[in-house]
Amino acid sequence: MREWKREGYKVVEVELDADLHEFEVIKEDEVIATITPETIEDMEQIASDLDNGEDVNGWEDGMGNTISI
Question: Quick one: 46 exposed, middle or buried, by C-beta within 10 A (0-12, 13-18, 19+)?
């Protein structure tokens, strides 16, 4: 699984359901949010955005909550 480091936190890809993965936002060794995509396409877009250096602060987690780092 992949991992993206940002200033003050990291995002770690974890298995959810077969080919679908979710993304845990970890700050100071504690999971503060989990981004749960609905589709493989959503998952790939999230990974692409993270690859391009996007910050997840302000993103929605897929459950209707806004991520606040």
Answer: buried
Residues forming a β-bridge with 13: 23
Q: How far apart are CA 39 and CA 21, in angstroms?
A: 9
Residue 12, CA distances (Å) to 18, 21, 24 in order: 17, 10, 5
Residue 61, CA distances (Å) to 5, 24, 25 in order: 18, 10, 10
- How much is the pTM? 0.93
Residue with tokens 């974890």: 14
pLDDT tens for the 69 residues of the chain, in order: 899 999 999 999 999 988 999 999 999 999 999 999 999 999 999 999 999 999 999 999 989 999 999
Nearest 10 degrees: CA dihedral of 38, 6, 27, 55?
A: -40
